[in-house]
Give the backbone structure.
Amino acid sequence: MNNNYGLAIVKDYPIKGVNFIDINGLLATPKYFTAVIEKFCETIKNNLPADMLGKAAIVSPESRGFVFGAPVAAKLGLPLLLIRKNGKIPNHPYIFRITNEYSTYDMEMDSDLLAAHDHFVYIDDILATGQTLGSVRKAVAKKDKKIELAVHLTAVADLKSLRDENADLNGLPTKEII
């Protein structure tokens, strides 16, 4: 198995100067996808205290976060809370603002499901500037909930200094599996 698991870099996409990490090769290769789901589970088990693992729920943002969050939640036997685009949660949406490297917009999650859990593991595909993660962390904290660990498929190394400067990420353990 190669070390990039089928990931490819698409230069200048979606805008000039941005190098997009394409996960399609990974998803199209079952052995790679299976391997990364195992790595997500292993990383969570190794970095979340055992007593916390039984109390936590997975939280994942639309849409590529769903690809990894759902199978990890199922494999670990944990509840899954989806972060959706505004207008997609039918019952009791908790609406909050997301700011990332491209824009600012509203997202939402089911407030009843959020209320049912106090501790979360955040799962997404790419950790770039950390702005999406920071926005979700603040939104969850406003409801007296806590993201205990954030696990991503991979991170953009060139943006590490921006993540290090992001006060919304202070003290939050983050891990990448590739």
The mean pLDDT is 93. Residues 11 and 19 are 4 Å apart (CA to CA).
